[in-house]
Specification:
The structure is a homodimer. The first copy, chain A, is an alpha/beta fold. Chain A is 30% helix and 27% strand. Chain A has twelve helices and 19 strands. In chain A, the strands form four sheets. In chain A, strands 3, 5, 6, 9, 10, 18 and 19 form a seven-stranded mixed beta sheet that branches. Chain A has a six-stranded parallel beta sheet with strand order 13-12-11-14-15-17, with helices on both faces. In chain A, strands 2-1-4 form a three-stranded antiparallel beta sheet, with helices on one face. In chain A, β11 (165-169), α6 (173-184) and β12 (189-193) form a beta-alpha-beta unit. In chain A, α5 (147-157) crosses α6 (173-184), α5 packs across α11 (288-300) and α8 (216-226) runs parallel beside α9. Chain A is globular, with a radius of gyration of 19 Å. Chain A binds chain B through residues 93-94, 97-99, 101-102, 104, 228-230, 242, 245, 253-255, 260, 263-272, 274-285, 287, and chain B through 93-94, 97-99, 101-102, 104, 228-230, 242, 245, 253-255, 260, 263-272, 274-285. β16 (268-270) of chain A pairs antiparallel with β16 (268-270) of chain B, so a sheet runs across the interface.
Chain lengths: 338, 338
């Protein structure tokens, strides 16, 4: 089969790779219904996270189970499944506490930008839908594999409550789905920080009540203005730079919460400053597995439509163009069809 | 009157100062029943926090109201009152959210190691007891002014729940009262990190089930051992150094919480490390005012006895010896009687 492999900065190739097979008895192999490119794939694509050698890309996936190892009990061939980018056993103490992305046996899923994928720890990682979904539901179900689960975790970690005043730092797909999550959780006011017309439009569609175009200290000042000097109850940090993290912390009211899901790059927190902000901090790699069953129901019931973040759909063999479009911010997120 | 004034490292003098009077119409002046020395007073005493000039010391107090300004409505002369080290209006949005130590009009109370004290924003800062307490209740009531409220906030910020596994970093008076607070909140297991026999004894008396003498990475390893590799649900950071903060974070399970109340000195958090710990962080200067009414009831009902942290009682004019005893760790905490 052919799949996406990153060779170096801005050098993604679609080339022959070994087809996945069952290696461990807990594995499953799935035939991809759709896959996509993640904002976090851009870190190595841009050379900011160096790679050791040619690297199969992609960690978002949904599809039909083709084969399972002999130790797999609950997942069956023929099922439509979605899983997280972190494989988990879903039985260890960290999984039982709802932190499957800190599972004691966690393993990163990689190489999903391909027609087929091996998923470790299939029983603990994959969630099967009751029926095989119709084709038009695929984008929203695929989004649950990472980007929607991550936006949801940002809102969950930021303690978004009914009626809350929420700010979202970052207008990438995760930030936009953070807006959708906050809306779903009943937020009363959602201030989306964005400078791009197409993203502002989608943010409003997902439930944003205010658009803030300022950044850094000016962005903080604008959030304070909009909240009578108080700050937001909940702030979702969906970027991962030092500036965006500080913008999030400083936009939050004392006793309010920052949920941060942007993978930190160069973030350093001064303990004394943090102390006097009285802000709650929680975040990390989203425990997508925890949220999958509920999010699948919300998609099937038509309550959420996270697939709208895919504003570019390409055949899988055009994957390199998919990266270019996201790198140049021509696309929010690229869906790839095998 | 005479009160404690710090002139430089290890130079506390008991000397003539102006007696306090009503300056603002929202002020009260109280006659001190007892005052004490705080662990945080040792930062400037040791020269770690430099002072600009001679500084009246002390911020923990309880006593009888002598006089109030014309704008004071609820506090009356003759009442026995306790207040926080941060004066607050108790009406601004931050106060109403329970973060009185981030009050928009907050003011540090200073110079309490004296026979009388001016307290700003008396209505919002002071809490009067129903009756004037008996003399033997004074130490426990005085403790509510800071050290007990701070230990309580550490446990509250660390989300201590019934049955929880708790670790406490720091065996000063705040850490010991963090143990007491966690016990009061129903913790199932409390691991106190302490190397000093007298403090270990008091920790056990307050409810510690395990004593951990190791520090740093070894302390973390010991907490992990004691929790079958999982980590604690809630960790109270009651020191404020970089080492103690990292010890607290690394001792916590994914999804668990660190409540930090030690004033940070040189604490720097690496965003990427924090991200992958999945730990919740909350802390800051304790909003003591939020907890005062409930804590006063707990003392009056004999449910808690935080005054036990005072293992040295001196007449106020021996204040310099009180500092020496704490600096040399001969005393946990010194109570001063005017």
């Amino acid at each position: 089969m052919r799949g996406a492999v990153l060779y170096g900065p801005r050098d993604v190739r679609f080339e022959e790779r070994d087809a996945p097979t069952i290696i461990e008895p807990t594995d499953a192999v799935i035939r991809m219904s759709a896959t996509c490119i993640c904002g976090s794939d851009l870190w190595p694509y841009r050379g900011i996270n160096p790679i050791a050698g040619p690297t199969p890309m992609g960690h978002e996936y949904c599809g039909i189970v083709e084969d399972v190892g002999r130790a797999v009990a609950s997942i069956k061939p023929g099922q439509f499944v979605i899983g997280s980018f972190f494989a988990s056993d879903n039985t260890c103490p960290h999984c039982r506490a709802g932190y499957q992305s800190s599972c004691r046996h966690r393993a990163l899923v990689g190489g999903a930008q391909a027609p087929a994928l091996r998923v470790p720890l299939a029983d603990g990682t994959l969630v099967a839908t009751r029926d095989v979904p119709s084709d038009d539901a695929i984008p929203s179900l695929l989004a649950l594999s990472d980007v929607m689960g991550t936006g949801w975790f940002a809102a969950d970690a930021a303690n978004v409550k009914a009626g809350a005043t929420v700010a979202v730092v970052g207008d990438g797909a995760v930030g936009l789905l953070g807006v959708l999550s906050a809306k779903q959780m009943g937020a009363g006011r959602i201030m989306a920080m964005s400078r791009h017309a197409s993203r502002q439009k989608l943010a409003r569609e997902f439930g944003a009540t205010d658009i803030v175009t300022e950044r850094g200290d000016e962005g903080v000042a604008r959030i304070k203005d909009l909240t009578k000097g108080v700050g937001a109850d909940s702030v979702l940090e969906c970027v991962g730079t030092h500036e965006s993290m500080m913008q999030a912390i400083r936009s939050t009211r004392p006793g309010g919460s920052v949920g941060y899901v942007g993978v930190p790059h160069g973030v350093t927190l001064n303990g004394e400053e943090l102390f006097y902000t009285h802000v709650r901090l929680h975040g990390g790699p989203a425990p997508v597995r925890r949220f999958l069953p509920d999010l699948i129901s919300l998609v099937f019931n038509g309550k959420i439509n996270p697939g709208k973040v895919f504003d570019l759909t390409l055949p899988l063999d055009h994957v390199a163009e998919g990266y270019r479009a996201m790198d140049e911010r021509r696309a929010i997120k690229t869906l790839l069809r095998p």
